[in-house]
Structure formats: structure tokens, C-alpha cells
Amino acid sequence: AQSVAQPEDQVNVAEGNPLTVKCTYSVSGNPYLFWYVQYPNRGLQFLLKYITGDNLVKGSYGFEAEFNKSQTSFHLKKPSALVSDSALYFCAVRDIRSNDYKLSFGAGTTVTVRA
Amino acid sequence: GAGVSQSPSNKVTEKGKDVELRCDPISGHTALYWYRQSLGQGLEFLIYFQGNSAPDKSGLPSDRFSAERTGGSVSTLTIQRTQQEDSAVYLCASSFREPPSYEQYFGPGTRLTVT
């Protein structure tokens, strides 16, 4: 079984401040981890992924995420948030040993960046 | 290049009618996925295709739901005798198959409203 938890429904930050969106996961084996962003009335847009290698991965639009195996976390971060980063963010996981290819998504975190 | 496209973008139908939702994946992507996004349910996996075959149909909510894929490309999700609880945004995604860890690219979705 695989699952993701995003403990915060909403995150509010001021423009220029650091942004963190939390994600923890549960898998039987090792995880493949992903972050997606969804703007209003749009589909999900891929931001970044962790497959193997460096625990710190960098993605689109200045976002990065750190894989922490001991804490089973994959928090999304951005050093300096922009108003345009306001959107719905989803963390997703897949167990690399799983025979099905579906992603399990968290419930999503709404990020609001105020000017 | 072109992304995943879905049609129609919006569909309003009366309870009991059948609907067909179409997905055109990114050229060269052999894997195709359907998800459903609804309030209170988050993102829910429905079905996965590898080529024209669907190894995993366990996510389909009921036997009123079916999907097919032809020519390893376009896929159609059919909902028969629609119910109000079928109202949701239906998202299609595609990816390369090898390795299956590759990120999935999502279309803009079809918003289905059953009245």
C-alpha cells in the first residue's frame, strides 16, 4: 500500500519569504516521489521528482524538495515566494516495487502568497 | 510539443444519460492514466493503460465506468447511466513506460456535471 499525507490544507506567506509545503509518505518499499501544481481551472503541472541519487532535487520555477528517508518526508521549498506561486500543490508517491503504475496523491495544499 | 488534450472541457448531462470523455496523450507516450478529482475525494486513480491493454481496472468506481484505448493513442472513458455522484473533473495523464517512474503529464481535464 502507498499513501501520502499533506498535513496543511493551507499555507499563507508574504511575497519574498520562504515557502515550505509539507509532505510525508508511506510505502512498503522505496518511493518515487513527485510534486505537482494546479492553477485554477487547469490540469496538474509537473514540478519535480525524486527517483534516486541526491536527496535535494531542483525543479521548475525555483522550487526544490528534499527527500528524507528517515522521516519519510519530501517537503517542497522555495527560498523566495512570488504572488504567482499561489496555487494548489499536490505531493504524490509510487512504490517502486508496485506492479501498478498509479500515483497516490495527497489531499493538496493551497498556497496563498500575499503581496 | 503538444501536451495531453482532453475533450470536451466541460460537459453537463442529465442523470441517467451516458457520456464519453476523450483523451489524446502526448505523442510517443505508451502509458495512459485516468484520474478523477472531486471535492472531498482528492485525486482518485481510475484506470491505467499500457499500449491498448489495461492491466489494472481496480480503480473504476462501478461497472457503469469503462475505458478503452485504440491504436496505442486516444482513449475514451465512458460513464453509463450517470449519477450525480459522478460529477467531478476527470483528468487524463500520459507518460513513457520505461522506466515507469517517469513523471506523468496531465491534460486540462473534463469537468462533468450531472444534473
Write a structural description:
The complex is a heterodimer of chains A (about 120) and B (about 120). The model of chain A has no long low-confidence stretch (mean pLDDT about 95). Chain A starts with a strand and ends with a strand. With about 120 residues, chain A is mostly beta strands. Helices cover about 0% and strands about 50% of the residues of chain A. Chain A contains no helices and twelve strands. In chain A, the strands form three sheets. In chain A, strands 2, 5, 6, 10, 11 and 12 form a six-stranded mixed sheet that branches. Chain B is mainly beta and about 120 residues long. In chain B, the strands form two sheets. In chain B, strands 2, 4, 5, 6, 9, 10 and 11 form a seven-stranded mixed sheet that branches. Chain B has a four-stranded antiparallel sheet with strand order 1-3-8-7, with no helix packed on it. In chain B, strand 4 and strand 5 (about 40-50) form a beta hairpin. Classes of the chains: A mainly beta (about 120), B mainly beta (about 120). At the A-B interface, strand 5, strand 6 and strand 11 of A face strand 5 and strand 10 of B.
What is the alpha-carbon Rg of chain B in Å? Answer: 13 Å
Most extensive interface between two protein chains, with residue counts: A-B, 24 and 23 residues
Hey, roughly how much beta strand do the residues of chain A contain?
A: over 45%
**Main sheet of chain B?**
7 strands, mixed
Compressed to H and E, one letter per element, the order of chain A equals EEEEEEEEEEEE
What is the gyration radius of chain A calculated from CA atoms? 14 Å
Q: Ranges of chain B with pLDDT <50 over ≥5 residues? A: none
Number of separate strands of chain B:
11
The amount of beta strand of chain B, in percent, is over 45%
Can you give the mean pLDDT of chain B? 91
* Number of E-type strands of chain A: 12
As a percent range, the share of helical residues of chain A equals under 10%
User: Which segments of chain A are poorly predicted (pLDDT under 50) over 5 or more consecutive residues?
Assistant: none
- Supply the helix-strand structural class of chain A: mainly beta
State the assembly state of the protein chains.
heterodimer
Largest sheet descriptor of chain A: 6 strands, mixed
Shape call of chain A: globular
What average pLDDT do the residues of chain A reach? 93
Q: Pairing-aware structural class of the strands and helices of chain B?
A: mainly beta
Q: What's the tally of helices of chain B?
A: 0
